[in-house]
Design goal:
By secondary structure, this protein is of the alpha+beta class. It has 16 helices and 18 strands. The protein has three domains: 170 residues, FAD/NAD(P)-binding domain (3-Layer(bba) Sandwich); 167 residues, D-Amino Acid Oxidase, subunit A, domain 2 (D-Amino Acid Oxidase, Chain A, domain 2), CATH 3.30.9.10; 108 residues, Helicase, Ruva Protein, domain 3 (Orthogonal Bundle), CATH 1.10.8.
């Protein structure tokens, strides 16, 4: 999958694309996979990098949504549980079962939460990942070795799944490409044009070269996530806003804070959200918050009150509160929530269901949703787009479609297991050049060969692309990522044929970005 080859297709194509998808997050990538797998000529354009925004800033969970059960949204829970099972089957190299423990500190906690989790089990049906059960005090401590033991009575164990969000996004891009789609990052949709009152032209700007180009399509799908309203206004400048936004922040802590293999789950925090302590890539992610925000930005940062909230809750349920200097990284993501029609609605209570609309010109827009249900969202929007374009319906084929790299025993290849069937090729790079077998940094899990692979086969174009998303170094340890930046820039410049000035500019830009992930001591 090479960017230059996909760009060449834009100038070589003489016929309109069947579908042009705007947005390279979970929903857009899933849409491109679905459309291409149905045999449609599909183009996806992403303004910056795949999953740069919301889709790489999750809590790393593929789950049914315990809090939605509490809200009474059983249909969303059912759909999420079905999609959780399908995703585990289609991407076994990226999605894995994980045990979650709810610690019980009062006499009523265990029966109350246990009853809810039994219902969760029944809703999952044959796609269940394991039956929930009550835990004794000793069993709870065994599974959560650093849990706060003061007044601990026991716990409840249940099962959900976890994944690597940015890695799944890259593999979805490759899946779409494998099925014939053209996918291009750093390519911005700057205008939409109607011909005979129907939207049929998208004006693009290549952000690398500055070149302007036009592409024609029979249907344009707006899957731009938090920027969906901005795309709608390219079609109709008077389009009213349909989204409200919530910010969720996370802390990344050393493994010593939670050395067990199970996740900690707190069913209800002071802001009404579920809080998790999740083991991930030999670190611990603590999150998330829910704070209403009015402005959309590419790089949201945790607010001081969010950091304090997460530190305080970590200390409340673990054996000690992390000091600012012990936090490896802190990151935030924005959730695009479909407006309930009331400015006073709390974002934590807004449904994560998705909605699809079609404008007078034929622009198909999908909004809302969450990672777990991305495949179903994609199927729904392609169905709707077929009707908008006047196509005869073609059946969705993604229910059992393997995602690029799918390999059931990939964990045996750690730390390259997340690459699935591509891991062998990365290992070969390291054999051919032993220097590439060396770690990028002693405090990061990636080897240098991964950066070369990202540039050659995964359309990584910047230092941020490789350190923030292709390898997750920025999220896992922001200070180490800053220290690794010069060597990473050298490797990337060699692959992209860039000069010393480019390397220096990339390092400056990355250091500025990474500073937003550091927590002042």
């Amino acid at each position: 999958m090479k960017r230059e080859n996909n760009l060449d297709r834009l100038t070589a194509e003489t016929e309109p694309w069947d579908f042009i998808v705007i947005g390279g997050g979970a929903t857009g990538l899933g849409t491109a996979v679905d459309a291409a797998a149905r045999g449609y000529r599909t183009l996806l354009v992403e303004r910056r990098d795949f999953a740069l925004g919301t889709s790489s800033r999750s809590t790393k969970l593929v789950h049914g949504g315990v809090r939605y059960l509490r809200q009474g949204n059983v249909s969303l829970v059912l759909e999420s549980l079905r999609e959780r099972g399908r995703l585990e089957a289609n991407a076994p190299h990226l999605v894995h079962r994980l045990g979650f423990v709810i610690p019980a500190y009062s006499r009523t906690d265990r029966p109350f939460y246990g009853t809810g989790m039994k219902l969760y089990d029944r809703l999952a049906g044959p796609l269940s990942l394991g039956r929930s059960r009550f835990l004794s005090r000793r069993e709870t401590i065994d599974r959560l070795p650093t849990v706060n033991q003061d007044r601990l009575r026991g716990g409840v164990l249940y099962f959900d799944a976890q994944f690597d969000d940015a890695r799944l996004a890259i593999n979805l891009a490759r899946t779409a490409h494998d099925h014939g789609a053209a996918v291009i990052n750093d390519c911005e949709a700057v205008g939409l044009e109607r011909r005979a009152d129907r939207l049929s032209v998208v004006q693009l700007r290549d952000r690398e070269s500055g070149a302007e180009l036009e592409v024609r399509g029979r249907c344009v799908i707006n899957a731009a996530g938090v920027f969906a309203d901005a795309v709608r206004r390219l079609d109709d400048r008077d389009a009213p806003p349909n989204l409200v936004f919530s910010q969720g922040s996370h802390l990344v802590l050393p493994k010593e804070f939670h050395p067990g293999d199970n996740a900690l789950m707190v069913p209800k925090t002071a802001d009404g959200r579920v809080l998790f302590g999740v083991p991930w890539h030999d670190r611990v992610i603590v999150g998330t918050t829910d704070v209403a925000v009015k402005e959309v930005t590419d790089e949201p940062a945790p607010r001081d009150e969010e950091l304090e909230f997460l530190r305080e809750h970590a200390g409340r349920y673990l054996q000690r509160t992390p000091r600012p200097g012990e936090i490896l990284s802190a990151y935030s993501g924005l959730r695009p929530l479909v407006s309930p029609g009331s400015d006073g609605a709390r974002t934590a209570s807004i449904s994560r269901d998705h909605t699809i609309s079609v404008s007078a010109s034929g622009l198909v827009t999908i909004m809302g949703g969450k990672w777990t249900t991305y495949r179903r969202m994609a199927a729904d929007v392609v169905d709707r787009a077929e009707t908008a374009a006047g196509f005869q319906h073609r059946a969705c084929s993604t229910v059992h479609l393997p995602i690029h790299g799918a390999e059931s025993d990939s964990q045996s290849r750690e730390p390259l297991g997340v690459y699935g069937s591509d891991a062998a090729a990365i290992e070969s790079l390291a054999v051919e050049d032993p220097g590439l077998a060396k770690p990028l940094h002693p405090d990061l899990p990636c080897i240098k060969a991964e950066l070369v692979w990202a540039a050659r086969h995964e359309m990584a174009r910047t230092l941020e692309d490789v350190l923030a998303r292709r390898t997750r170094s920025l999220v896992l340890n922001a200070r180490a990522a800053i220290e690794a930046a010069p060597e990473a820039a050298r490797l990337l410049a060699g692959e992209l044929n860039r000069n010393a000035a480019w390397r220096e500019e990339q390092q400056r830009a990355f250091e500025k970005l990474a500073g937003r992930y550091l927590v002042p001591e």
